[in-house]
Prior knowledge:
By secondary structure, the protein is of the alpha/beta class. The chain has helices spanning 14-24, 36-50, 73-101, 124-144, 171-182, and strands at 8-11, 27-30, 55-58, 104-109, 148-153, 193-195, 198-199. Helix content is 44%, strand content 14%. The strands form two sheets. Strands 3-4-5-6-7 form a five-stranded mixed sheet, with helices on both faces.
Amino acid sequence: MREGYRVLTAARRSEDAQRAAVAIGGDAVVLDLSDPSDAEEAVADLIEERGPIDILVNNAATFASGTAPEIETSELTDSLMVNTVAPFALIRAVAPAMVERGWGRIVNVSSGLGAFAGGLRGPAAYSISKAALNAVTVSWASVLAPNIKVNAVCPGWVRTRMGGSAAPRTPEEGADTPIWLATLPDDGPTGQFFRDRKRTGW
């Protein structure tokens, strides 16, 4: 990246990680978040091999449609594993070195569909798991403050494989606020939820 950061792009499939790495000039890493314990161990091994991670953007997600009466318990469990527990596990993996160095930025990519302020009106498994991710954000921010900034962000409806071609925002537009949060100055906010670089309701 032009800011001078070395970027690691992680995906469950190697070809997806490679494609993203080529697009932004980063290095590809294969990481499967369906098993958070394995993912945490993999990141710990990565840190031991390549050195500490200064910025973590938890962007992976799974999307299951259906209202609360329509979804199976297994769909909720799967969504929580990927959208909530895995980000928690990755923070556990990177936080000790951040604390040791006295600097770090953690960005949890959430959604307005997971905001109580919006009524949790999205598909049940997705909304519940993103609301829980917001809780993960507040919990970690409270113990890592002030040197390590932990924030959540709603990127909006973005034209990705999950968002679909009808989404109004480009990936670049969706990435603007996460990148801003990932590069906050020392006096920047922590433990907050943002959209378009402005605080939004939990």
